[in-house]
C-alpha cells in the first residue's frame, strides 16, 4: 500500500491493510486476524501467533512509541506487573502508521477488572521515580487541538467547548496539589487493565508522562461515576488506594478538565454520523446543562 493514511482515513478497512503489511515485515501470518478495538488505536489479535498488533494513528511519531516501549521494559525490570512488548523488531511502519507487538493475554474466562482491582497497581506505579525522559502532562493544548480538528462539532459546540476550557483553565490557577508530581499512567481505567496470573496489570502506556498523581485518581473516579451505576465500584478503589480524590479541594476543577479532555478527544476521533459522534453530542449537551451524574455510553 502506497497511499498514506490520515486521521480521516484511519478506518478498519485501511488498518487491515497496515496489519497485513507489518505482519509480513515481522514474519507473522495475519490470516484470521480479529479486530479487538478501533478507537484510539487499531488493535488486532493475530491468532496463529497469539500476538496483539497495536496500530497507532498517523500522528504518532517513532520517538513516541520507542519511548513507550522503553518505559514498559523499564517498569518490568522494576517489578511492575504489566504486559511487556514481544520480541519482534518494533515499531514497524506502513502507510504512515506505526505498529507495536504484544503477547495476547486471554480474558474470556476472567471476571471483569473492577476499580478495586486498579488500586494496588496504581499505587505501586505512583511510588516509582522514572529514569526515563518523559514529557509533562498536556493539560490544555490537546483539548484545544481536538476542538479545532473535530469533523463532528458544529460552530456552536466549538464555541461552547472553547469557552468552557477557558473557564476551567482560569480555575486551574487556584488549584493546590496535595500529592507529589511524578510518573502517571494518564488514563488508568477498567479497559486499560488485564487480569494476569500474578494479579491485575495496567496496560496501554502511550500517554504515560510526568504529572500530578491527582490526574490518575480523578480519571478513575470519572470512569466509575460515568460508566457504573453502583457507587461501590468507586468505594472499592478508595479502599484499595487509600485516597478519595473527591475530598481534595481541586477535585471539581480537575473533574471538569478531565471530562472535557475525554469529550474533546472523542470528538476528534469520531466520524460524522457515527454512533460515537452521537455520544459525543449527547455528552456536550449534558455539559451544557450542568449534569455531572448521568451515565455515559462507553466508546
CATH superfamily of the largest domain: Aminoglycoside phosphotransferase (APH), C-terminal lobe
**Estimated helix fraction:** 40-55%
Radius of gyration: 19 Å
The total strand number stands at 9
CATH topology of the largest domain: Aminoglycoside 3'-phosphotransferase, Chain: A, domain 2
Q: Any guess at the CATH architecture of the largest domain?
A: Alpha-Beta Complex
pLDDT below 50 for ≥5 consecutive residues: which ranges?
none
Broad CATH class of the largest domain: Alpha Beta
Give the strand line-up of the largest sheet.
Answer: 1-2-3-5-4
How many discrete structural domains?
Answer: 2
Structural shape? globular
> Which strand-content bin applies to the residues?
5-15%
How many helices? The count is 9
Overall pLDDT confidence: 95
Pfam families: APH (PF01636)
Protein name: Aminoglycoside phosphotransferase family protein
Keywords: Transferase
Organism: Kribbella qitaiheensis
